[in-house]
Amino acid sequence: MDAPLHLIALNAGTPFGLRVAHHLGTGLAGHGEQDFDDGEFLLRAPAAVRGGDVYVIQALAAVAEQGSGERLSRLLFLAGALRDAGAARITAVLPYVAFARQDARREPGDPLALRYVATHLEAAGIDAVLALDVHNLSAFQNAFRCRTEHLDGSALFAARIAADAPDEDFCVVAPDGGGIRRAECLREALAQALCRPVTLAFVEKHRHGSTLTGDLLAGDVAGKTAIVFDDIIGTGHTMARAVRACRAHGATRVLAAATHAVFAGDAAAALADAGVDGVIVADTVQEGGRALAIGDGKVAVLDTSALFAQAIRALHEGAPAFR
Q: What pTM was estimated for this model as a whole?
């Protein structure tokens, strides 16, 4: 695109935004963001965005001072201000997409919250959305009418695992049937990084309200390092069940890996109690810091800023960002 590139990170995401800007060889555009005593806030677009190609970085995961709804509202308000200020194109860069798990009606009256998020972003003037490892890719793509670009973080995880333990025999494990495709992507990337075969397994899971059941592990983890791979660690209970199942079936080591370290409630304790040997997460939720409660030396946090910078550069130059 011939228009100049402008990169903005809302205040809560400034450290991540600065890393992306470094990889792009630019700085962050200075927007206005002000909080008021009554809980309202003001977002002001930079003065120089008219005719520009604008990328706004805002992870929608809740942080201590801002819930997911507020973080979404701030993004919407800034997008509207950018559109009013004459930006030629606005891309929402979402390291984490909140409400993405609410993508289907499982009971009468359930909301399709992911679709509602998409509708709000489009109404505010967003032209494209760039995201990493969304919960359900098909649902994500179908929820939006604007352009969507999805990044796959499998290669980042595979590179770290292969570098840390190049000689181990690995099996990638999906913690439920719905995660088999995601686990297969990591299995392929890890096999390529190691230049040898890597096997695949999955753990049976049935959900009845808040109760999880299912005892089957399909695949062979005996004598291997099992890598339980998911997109999100929320409460940690699904991951902890899978870790225990791998141990019960003879895995010599069990690693928990997930892109988004939401770590709600007692997630860190749940994984520690399950006997996980290590945790690998990305920096999409509070820089991955919530996972660190598991203990020193057990948690690796992967930097995704170069991946996002590469995608932003590709989109600005008119190429697809998909990797």
A: 0.93
